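[Meeting: bench + compute handoff]

Bench side (C.D.) handed over the final construct sequence. Compute side (W.E.) agreed to return the predicted structure before the next meeting so the bench team could plan truncations. Sequence as handed over:
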Amino acid sequence: MARAAISVVMLCLFAATVIAEDPYVYYTWNVSYGTISPFGAPKQAILINDQFPGPEINCSSNNNIVVNVFNNLDEPLLFTWHGIQHRKNSWQEGTPGTMCPILPGTNFTYKFQVKDQIGTYFYYPSLGLHRTAGGIGGLRIFSRLLIPVPYPDPEAEHWFLIGDYYAKSHTALKQILDNGGSLGMPNGVLINGENVKHLHGDNKPQFTMKPGKTYKLRICNVGSKDSLNFRIQGHPMTLVETEGSHTVQNAYESLDVHVGQCFTVLITANQEPREYAVIASTRFTPYILEGKAIISYEGAKKHASLFLPLAPITWFWSLNQFRTFRWNLTASAARPNPQGSYHYGQINITRTIKIVNSVARDDSGKLRYAINGVSHVDPETPLKLAQYYGVADKVFQYNLISDSPDEYINKITVAPNVLNATFRDFVEIVFENPTVSVQSYNLDGYSFFLVGMEEGRWSPDKRESYNLLDAVSRHTVQVFPNSWSAILLTFDNAGMWNLRSENAENRYLGQQMYVSVLSPEKHTVQVFPNSWSAILLTFDNAGMWNLRSENAENRYLGQQMYVSVLSPEKSLRDEYNLPLTQQVCGIVKDMPVPAPELIEEKLNNGELSNEESINGVAWEGAIYSHHGGRKVEPRQEGELQSS
């Protein structure tokens, strides 16, 4: 009877242990070439599991994402996770400044956590002009079930991945740029990889709505160059989230979505049951290109009206729309505390960095784009690897650019562009755009507060116009022609982070840079000859810890010791028990395993929380050593959770 009771307790502990770590979501991608013909002419595209666009990554806040990528192309490949912050870890960021590419015929497994994030994002291939060929898909992060969202659960939700489209292959476009040319206007606009040619044709709707129900739409501009205006015939959109932040819920007839930006909206099926057109059209271009799709009501028998809603005209309209976007201060995002509990407007600015884009020809006459006069090129060795191995000086030079560039930049230097930033500095970055085209920038590893945006040149007195209360926290910022945009952020995420133009041509030809954020706290200390070094620390981590010389000869011949830190309470609060899978050797090899702490007794006595009992059981390692955590299958389309 006693043995049976012990077995039951062990089974309960095994079940509890499975949920101790944040869940894992697994994906396997086979990346290959394929042919698409959205406008009739065939084009070589990049497919994931034979899909264009690629499969959705579907997860919840704090999930661990594991993506095994098999590269079946004839060229190197990397994927970047647009808007994902990769806390404390830029190794999985997927840009050539942080990672070696996945070579043809090989595979690589990405593993990253969507720590403290919710919302609508996307992924894409980051090398060369791969993004113009496809390999793009949505990445949605649901909120944890215990954290409420500021609107009722919708009937269903759907993606709208919109973007401009070039009929030429990515290799042909690359050759144009390598020869000194420019890409020019795209050939069209796609919505979820398609374009409806005739509204009264036999068109398959993107989805079908039930009258009276509300639907959530996740909209991202995944294109290569152009801002797009998104609108739905007869259906206003209520904005509820953008790039990980819940917003004040204003209604919009249309939304300007700049390259790299994402919005989440709600629409209600409260119109006549029929088909309706969805339109994405280019903005700020010599002539307008439109992409169209269809949504429908259940049982609809009438086609969409041929009278389509018109897009706005000037970029001043877009600027004014930006000013209506506000952070929802009372809503919780990925954490239980309200968004407005972070008072970013009360923090002192420690550094101001001005980013000015420019364009010129290099000495060979080829077109180059630059940031503060430096046009970035990727070295053979990824920047972060060079830094980590202590050979940065052989690969790149820090701080080629100034925080305050000259008013007029006439010369461009072609080199790796890496800016040093101080860990935990609260920084103001001002983007100035002296050109006649709209710019769009993304900063990996961070979200920032987009506090100001105006026409003209920036000066310190412009801070008086900043929104220091409820600016939306996001990861991509637009900068209008002959205008400036200002962001505020804390450099609290150590790593090597890519700050890049979202315009494929500009980025490929140098309008990007990396920000190196290093933590000043070290775990290794040097001691110079006939000198001394002192450290301070708290022995608050129970265990047996090795203090050693980092000189291999000295360490091997005895210059090391162990520090035993024991908890006087012998409590699971302070030190976990031996994992069942731990190898044992020496004189203890054949000894019985010491009994674990009496978890249930401690729980009953109020000496241990449920969370600590889950994390501290003796069998923890038995699960994670073999499985890496609980496997959670991706949710199927139509399954609903809060987001």
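W.E. noted at the follow-up: Residues 1-19, 598-603, 608-643 have pLDDT under 50 and may be disordered. C.D. will use this when planning the next construct.
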